[in-house]
């Protein structure tokens, strides 16, 4: 019998999982695949999140961002138990054909394109019921089953989703400066944080983001990020880097000299560095997470610069 005190979200930790297979360097953006237990949902309510049961969510829009990346928008029905997806939170999406699941970090881009006026400090930054949709940034991989399922989902179809899963609880004003380093679809936890922080009039946290991609054509959400920088120039600093273009100084793998000139000092007490990206970037910058999804030691460039697990978090 299910416990009456079941929590409305789950924390991702080192608890044993069924036949988990690690495939990537950033849990939220590059994630892992795992086998899920297909037990029956007693309610099966569409478009409502549940931390234990997969439920059908309707795809209401899709936008192709790059040659292999799409932004999929799903209907979301807030409930008293789960009015919104917490920051930084994720959801699991499954491939029903072979019982494989993969985590994705939902984002919400509409706040960027709307002519938002910041509320006064005495007003909430968003409706209490939360947004009525969320988006998943999905990269197409030829041999990744969940990625293929989502890329073949048409508007009006449904995908099986459960959650939310809490990965890094954010506390407003806990840090004076959050420095973000992201690569590819590893941008999603950072984008989720940007909305949470910048739309809260009581949160004074400053944010810097180094966003690395292979080419200019491979940069997802570039227009949204540049618009955020234009709207919040005193609180958000954006640096885009690419691997391939000889004429640009911000080209190539992230180097020690490049990072030291853009990150807060390692001994700055009110600063933290968040990192999310593909395995190669993670290994170069800070080291990958362990196979049981613990943070693991800080290695790579950040270790050389004096950072430790106290002021580095890996997604």
From TrEMBL:
<dbReference type="GO" id="GO:0005741">
    <property type="term" value="C:mitochondrial outer membrane"/>
</dbReference>
<feature type="transmembrane region" description="Helical">
    <location>
        <begin position="21"/>
        <end position="39"/>
    </location>
</feature>
<dbReference type="InterPro" id="IPR008333">
    <property type="entry name" value="Cbr1-like_FAD-bd_dom"/>
</dbReference>
<dbReference type="Pfam" id="PF00970">
    <property type="entry name" value="FAD_binding_6"/>
</dbReference>
<feature type="binding site">
    <location>
        <position position="139"/>
    </location>
    <ligand>
        <name>FAD</name>
    </ligand>
</feature>
<dbReference type="InterPro" id="IPR039261">
    <property type="entry name" value="FNR_nucleotide-bd"/>
</dbReference>
<comment type="similarity">
    <text>Belongs to the flavoprotein pyridine nucleotide cytochrome reductase family.</text>
</comment>
<dbReference type="InterPro" id="IPR001834">
    <property type="entry name" value="CBR-like"/>
</dbReference>
<protein>
    <recommendedName>
        <fullName>cytochrome-b5 reductase</fullName>
        <ecNumber>1.6.2.2</ecNumber>
    </recommendedName>
</protein>
<dbReference type="InterPro" id="IPR001433">
    <property type="entry name" value="OxRdtase_FAD/NAD-bd"/>
</dbReference>
<keyword id="KW-0520">NAD</keyword>
<dbReference type="InterPro" id="IPR017938">
    <property type="entry name" value="Riboflavin_synthase-like_b-brl"/>
</dbReference>
<dbReference type="Pfam" id="PF00175">
    <property type="entry name" value="NAD_binding_1"/>
</dbReference>
<keyword id="KW-0812">Transmembrane</keyword>
<dbReference type="GO" id="GO:0090524">
    <property type="term" value="F:cytochrome-b5 reductase activity, acting on NADH"/>
</dbReference>
<dbReference type="InterPro" id="IPR017927">
    <property type="entry name" value="FAD-bd_FR_type"/>
</dbReference>
<keyword id="KW-1133">Transmembrane helix</keyword>
<feature type="binding site">
    <location>
        <position position="146"/>
    </location>
    <ligand>
        <name>FAD</name>
    </ligand>
</feature>
<keyword id="KW-0472">Membrane</keyword>
<feature type="binding site">
    <location>
        <position position="102"/>
    </location>
    <ligand>
        <name>FAD</name>
    </ligand>
</feature>
<keyword id="KW-0560">Oxidoreductase</keyword>
<feature type="binding site">
    <location>
        <position position="103"/>
    </location>
    <ligand>
        <name>FAD</name>
    </ligand>
</feature>
<keyword id="KW-0285">Flavoprotein</keyword>
<feature type="binding site">
    <location>
        <position position="147"/>
    </location>
    <ligand>
        <name>FAD</name>
    </ligand>
</feature>
<keyword id="KW-0274">FAD</keyword>
<feature type="binding site">
    <location>
        <position position="188"/>
    </location>
    <ligand>
        <name>FAD</name>
    </ligand>
</feature>
<feature type="binding site">
    <location>
        <position position="137"/>
    </location>
    <ligand>
        <name>FAD</name>
    </ligand>
</feature>
<feature type="domain" description="FAD-binding FR-type">
    <location>
        <begin position="52"/>
        <end position="171"/>
    </location>
</feature>
């Amino acid at each position: 019998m299910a416990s009456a005190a079941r929590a409305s979200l789950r924390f991702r930790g080192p608890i044993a999982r069924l036949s988990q297979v690690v495939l990537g360097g950033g849990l939220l953006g590059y994630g892992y695949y795992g086998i899920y237990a297909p037990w029956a949902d007693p309610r099966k309510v569409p478009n409502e999140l549940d931390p234990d049961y997969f439920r059908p969510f309707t795809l209401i829009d899709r936008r192709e961002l790059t040659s292999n990346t799409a932004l999929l928008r799903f209907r979301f029905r807030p409930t008293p138990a789960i009015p919104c997806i917490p920051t930084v939170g994720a959801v699991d999406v499954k491939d029903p054909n072979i019982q494989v699941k993969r985590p994705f970090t939902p984002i919400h881009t509409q706040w960027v394109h709307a002519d938002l006026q910041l509320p006064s400090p005495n007003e909430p930054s968003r409706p209490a019921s939360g947004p009525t949709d969320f988006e998943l940034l999905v990269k197409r991989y030829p041999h990744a089953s969940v990625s293929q399922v989502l890329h073949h989902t048409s508007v009006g179809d449904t995908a099986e989703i459960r959650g939310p899963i809490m990965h890094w609880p954010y506390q407003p004003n806990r840090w004076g400066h959050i420095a973000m380093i992201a690569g590819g679809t590893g941008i999603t936890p950072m984008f989720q944080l940007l909305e949470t922080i910048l739309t809260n009039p009581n949160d004074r946290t400053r944010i810097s983001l180094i966003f690395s991609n292979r080419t200019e054509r491979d940069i997802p959400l570039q227009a949204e990020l540049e618009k955020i920088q234009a709207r919040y120039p005193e609180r958000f600093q954006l640096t885009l880097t690419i691997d391939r273009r000889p004429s640009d100084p911000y080209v190539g793998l992230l180097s020690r000299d490049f990072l030291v000139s853009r990150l807060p000092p390692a001994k700055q007490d009110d600063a933290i560095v968040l990192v999310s990206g593909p395995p190669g970037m993670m290994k170069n910058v800070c080291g990958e997470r362990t196979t049981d999804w613990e943070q693991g030691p800080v290695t790579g460039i950040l270790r050389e610069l004096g950072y430790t697990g106290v002021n580095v978090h890996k997604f």
